[in-house]
Amino acid sequence: MGSSASTRRISSARKVEGPSSLNEVHAGGPLAEGQSKPLTKDDAVVVPDETDGGPSQPKAIASPNSNGKADAQNVAIQQEGTIDDASSGTLTDISDILLVDSAAAKAKRIEEFSDEVKQCLTLVKANIKHIQDCKCFPCTSCLERMDAIRTVSYNDDLDLSAVADGLGIDTDYCKMFAYTWKKGDMVQKLEDADQQEELSHELTHMFTFYNALLGSGWNFTDESDYFCLQMEEDGCLSLIVDWFLHLVKSDTAMNKWVDAMIFEAINMFQNAFRRVPTLTPKHHRAVPALQKFGESEDSLTQTMAFMTLAKLVKKEEADKLSTNYTCIVSLLSLLKKCLSNPDHKAESRRKSSKEKIGKSIIIHAEELVKSVDDLAINDNNKRLIVEKGGIPILAKLLQQDCSVEEKTSAANGIWRLAFLKENKEKLRKEQGIIYNLTENSQSKNENLRNACMGALFEIYESKLPEGLTHKKTDVESQQRAPSDSAKSRGHIMLSYKWEHPSKPVMREFKKQLRKRGYNVWMDEDHMMGDKIGAMAEAVENADMIIACITRGYQDSQDCRTGEKRFTSSSDQCQSSMCKRS
Fold it and tell me: What domains are there in the chain, each with its CATH number?
């Protein structure tokens, strides 16, 4: 999502039109319109992950190139972004990446920049240095330099992904952000400004600067994982969380200038948590602030705060996503509006009674449906989404004219909604959805295929009607067919979320158990074709399940569906805990 001075570009597959005239000015500067835990049959062993709260602050990442691929010489990613060893692979989730060869990866990324990007970064570096060195901050020159940086952040004539990568890798932008945010008591002066009076010349300078600072940060976090991680490493995200918490603890009402800055900052967080999910555990303390902002009188601020909150709360905190009627209705309305346009995007304008100057953002259907999925972790929200017409809207996102990403997000949303019994019954009556889920379950795209099969298994409680089962190829059938010995003595199933360190831990379990003669089933050995179906059969035939429980596991829909299938097929379920020393 882009800032108030630009757009929210949600999907790289759908680029928004270029900026409009820069003559349209509002408080923040020029507005570029249109840019926009399974149980077992016998004794289950549950292995809790010691890093349940998420990984420590990442210091570096592998280099994504212009096609979103990782440098094979530096990292190896399989499926959902798990790093294995030094073999090659594809980067699909940068948030799961470990330290590999940061310096080499960054150097390689810089080599990929075009001359135009390098020239742009040179100018931005000069502007950053001026702001850092200025003795009269924030002077008129500082404002001009900051506005120039923000103008870059929404210039669609540039390769903004490369520019944002460069800002994170090879400039002091994030250090400048932290330095200026902590500069004296300037932010406090803005907080103390009288709502009914005009800002002084000095405070106008301050507000204009910080609005541009947050706006450019909002745009760049939309474009680059490198940038998001550097904002984290240089303490920028923590500074904003501190500010959020300070604001909600204060008894003073927030004025319109602070409201505007909050809106920019919330969207910056939404981008960072969307692009790099492993940042969320580090900023869980922001939950009370986002809950408060979710009560804003401005519906768009309320919606964005609620969407960001949904990415922060843990599964066991689903009550903190207590039913927010306004937010759910707003999300579904925006999603419906997106689908009425050929490019599946819609403009929304923020305007509260306390602020005369509105701000436009462009929202893409893909992110909205992901937010619906996030919010549906709360059962009351599951119910409200369906009551307010969510099923037909999600059904439209499964149709042929939608992108693979939109279909996958919609299928995941339907899967989540189906965990509520009353929703299962309603979904079974929607033959259009069942048909499209069945058709898309044959997709060549693994994520889409698995999301659709998972949704079907959950809707029908793991007992698919005749004709809905996945048609297996000869290769899949051979791979999936258990040996006679396996049928007779069952197996131990290893259940975990594809993330570090769960996967290497479970690989070691597999190795040690097989050494002792046990028949072990691990999903990486059965990855062709219908993964959900293979997992379902593995659960049914298992004598024992060893599960590595992490936050990611608890939030995983396929793990939860597997758990329900196992418990429903078990006559008696017992569980025990086994902790690693």
Answer: 25-36+105-383 (1.25.10), 389-459 (no CATH), 483-577 (3.40.50.10140)
Q: What angle do CA 523, 525, 527 make, to 5 degrees?
A: 70
Q: Select from 160, 81, 155, 70 the least CA-distant residue to 109.
A: 70
Q: Is 329 exposed, middle or buried (0-12, 13-18, 19+ CB in 10 A)?
A: middle
Number of helices (H) and strands (E) in the chain: give both, helices first: 26, 11
pLDDT in tens, 140-189: 999 999 999 999 999 989 999 999 999 999 999 999 999 999 987 889 99
Residue 359: its pLDDT value, please?
66
Q: Place 373 in a pLDDT band, splitting at 50, 70 and 90.
A: confident
CA distances 542 to 46, 523, 550, Å, are 15, 13, 21
- Residue 184: burial class (beta carbons within 10 Å; 0-12, 13-18, 19+): exposed
Q: Is the pTM of this model over 0.70?
A: no
Q: State how far the Cα of 235 lies from the Cα of 12, in Å rounded to an integer.
A: 27
| CB-CB contact of 386 with 423 (8 Å) | yes
Q: Using CA atoms, how far apart are residues 311 and 561, in angstroms rounded to an integer?
A: 21
* 365 contacts: CB under 8 Å, gap ≥ 6: 335, 338, 339, 344, 345, 397, 406
Pairing of strands 520-522, 491-495: parallel
Beta-sheet pairing, 25-26 with 29-30: antiparallel
- What is the per-residue DSSP string for 99-129? PS-HHHHHHHHHHT--HHHHHHHHHHHHHHH
Distance (Å, whole) CA 429 – CA 426: 5
Pair 212, 176: CB distance under 8 Å: no
CA–CA separation, 502 vs 552, rounded Å?
A: 10
Confidence label for 105 from pLDDT (cuts 50, 70 and 90): confident
pLDDT one-digit tens code per residue, 19-40: 333 233 333 333 343 333 333 3
DSSP state of 278: G
